[in-house]
Structure formats: structure tokens, C-alpha cells
């Protein structure tokens, strides 16, 4: 009788391989198979031994070549065949990573699941800019939200909670809906001049971000090529971010766009 393998839901972090946990790296090097998403950086994928099976199940906006149910079945089949599996996800597997859905499915099939956390995109973005997500006297809380739901709609929530809150709002997967999100936030009472930024490829050599205001955010994002999945951060703490070489370059592009409009 074949012994059922284990499935490890592993967070790959924002991209920099040096931000992997030691436990994540050990499992990547030891398991029989790695099932990975598209947000896992090439640098981290290069750490997978050549003898280990690699299975790409990455999704892209509007394109899901391997549906979630098929991913679940792949994990079940591998584990039932006796293989230990790392399910490798960008960021943290339990923050907008569908880790909960996969864990529930696996447990229902009698498969042992263990979660290894990773640095989520918000933390990677903030660290890359020396930006405090919370700050005494400025932001007393932080809110992570998705920019769209399963039905590709805006989240159904009371937007008024963001209007006057001393909080930092972090928006994942919000590029397509950012104009609507900004409109809702301003209608809810958030000041149009609230500091805001968008960032892609945080912690990697090609990271890029723009700093602007809430009202200008949708316009500036369209004018500047943030070539990758974009994370948005909105709130007064955003004004405390560093202005390093990359950010200055992007901000100059924004000024040039405005001058030529």
C-alpha cells in the first residue's frame, strides 16, 4: 500500500530569494514535486533541484489555463501517489493565495497539510521603500483588500469605513478596478489628496513604483508602465516612503506626462 504524501503550502515571498524562510528553502530542496504559481520569481524557481518534478499552474488576469479545481486534483493525485509536495505561492499562501481553499480540499481527502508562511507583497513593498505600514500617530491599523472578487466585481463592503480612518489601505489585484476603487473611496470621504502609490516587482532588481495622490492614482498608473502585478498603498504613511533612485526616475516620468498633457 502506497503511503500518502504530505502537501506543504509554502509562501515564496515577494520575489527576492533571500527573503525565503529557511523552512521554505529546505522543503523546496527535499520534496518530490513543486507545484508553483506565476508570481514565483525565476530566481526562486532556480532553487528547485533538477531531479524534482515541476508543475506550472500559474494564472493570469483573464486567463486560467489550469482552473482551481484542476490544481486541487493535481495536488491530491501527487500526494495519493506517495509524493511529498510543495505548493509554492507568491507572497503568503493564506493572503489572497487560495491556500485556504486548497487546504480544505486536501484535508477532505485525508491528506496532511502544513502551511509555511511567506512575506506578503505589502510587506515586501513597504520594506523596499522603508515605508511604515503602521506608524504611531498616523496609522493605527492596516487593511488588506482584494481589488476584485470571484465574479470580477468590486468587493461588497461598506466603503465608509475607509473615509476617515487612520489606517493604511493595501489593495491587491486592483489594476483593472483602480478607477472605481478610487471613486468609491473619495465618495466615502477619503481626501482626494491622500498619499498613494503603486508598485510592481517589489524587492527585485526591476522594482518600480510611482508616488502620487489618491485622485491622481488611476491617471498616473495609466501613463507609467508598471510592468507586472501592481500593489497599491493608500494612506498618510505613504508620504513617509523613501525616494530612492528608482522612485525618483518614475516620479520624473509622471511630471513629464503632466507637462505634455
Relevant terms:
disordered C terminus; Cobalt-precorrin-4 Transmethylase, domain 1; 8 helices; alpha/beta; 261 residues; single chain; 2 domains; 10 strands; Methyltransferase, Cobalt-precorrin-4 Transmethylase, Domain 2; five-stranded parallel sheet
Number of domains: 2
CATH architecture of the largest domain: 2-Layer Sandwich
- Looking across the biggest beta sheet, what order are the strands in? 3-2-4-1-5
Count every beta strand, where a strand is a DSSP E run of 2 or more residues: 10
Mean pLDDT: 88
Helix/strand-derived class? alpha/beta
The CATH superfamily of the largest domain is known as Tetrapyrrole methylase, C-terminal domain
Low-confidence runs (pLDDT<50, min 5 residues)? 244-261
Spatial separation of the terminal alpha carbons: 70 Å
Give the helix tally. Answer: 8
Strand content: 15-25%
Largest sheet geometry: 5 strands, parallel
Instruction: Sketch the topology as an H/E string, one letter per element.
Output: EHEHEHEHEHEEHEEHEH
CATH class of the largest domain: Alpha Beta
Rg result: 20 Å
Mass-distribution shape? elongated
CATH topology of the largest domain: Methyltransferase, Cobalt-precorrin-4 Transmethylase, Domain 2
The helicity comes to: 25-40%
Q: How is this fold's topology laid out?
A:
Layout: E1 7-11, H1 22-30, E2 33-36, H2 42-45, E3 53-56, H3 68-80, E4 85-89, H4 99-108, E5 113-116, H5 121-128, E6 141-146, E7 167-172, H6 178-187, E8 195-200, E9 208-213, H7 217-223, E10 230-234, H8 245-260
Amino acid at each position: 500500500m502506497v503511503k500518502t504524501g504530505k502537501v506543504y503550502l509554502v509562501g515564496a515571498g515577494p520575489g527576492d530569494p533571500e527573503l525565503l524562510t529557511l523552512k521554505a528553502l529546505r522543503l523546496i530542496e527535499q520534496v518530490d514535486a513543486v507545484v508553483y504559481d506565476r508570481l514565483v520569481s525565476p530566481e526562486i524557481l532556480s532553487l528547485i533541484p533538477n531531479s524534482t518534478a515541476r508543475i506550472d499552474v500559474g494564472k493570469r488576469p483573464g486567463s486560467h489555463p489550469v482552473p482551481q479545481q484542476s490544481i486541487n486534483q493535481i495536488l491530491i493525485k501527487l500526494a495519493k501517489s506517495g509524493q511529498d509536495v510543495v505548493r509554492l505561492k507568491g507572497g503568503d499562501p493564506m493572503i489572497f493565495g487560495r491556500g485556504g481553499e486548497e487546504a480544505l480540499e486536501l484535508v477532505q481527502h485525508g491528506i496532511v497539510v502544513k502551511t509555511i508562511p511567506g512575506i506578503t507583497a505589502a510587506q515586501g513593498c513597504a520594506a523596499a521603500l522603508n515605508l511604515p505600514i503602521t506608524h504611531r500617530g498616523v496609522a493605527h491599523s492596516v487593511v488588506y483588500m482584494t481589488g476584485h472578487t470571484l465574479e470580477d466585481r468590486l468587493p461588497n463592503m461598506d466603503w465608509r469605513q475607509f473615509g476617515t480612518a487612520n489606517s493604511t489601505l493595501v489593495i491587491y489585484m486592483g489594476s483593472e478596478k483602480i478607477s472605481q476603487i478610487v471613486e468609491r473611496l473619495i465618495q466615502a470621504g477619503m481626501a482626494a489628496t491622500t498619499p498613494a502609490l503603486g508598485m510592481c516587482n517589489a524587492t527585485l532588481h526591476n522594482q518600480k513604483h510611482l508616488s502620487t495622490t489618491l485622485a491622481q492614482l488611476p491617471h498616473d498608473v495609466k501613463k507609467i508602465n508598471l510592468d507586472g502585478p501592481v500593489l497599491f498603498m493608500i494612506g498618510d504613511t505613504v508620504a513617509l516612503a523613501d525616494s530612492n533612485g528608482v522612485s525618483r526616475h518614475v516620479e520624473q516620468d509622471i511630471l513629464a506626462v503632466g507637462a505634455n498633457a
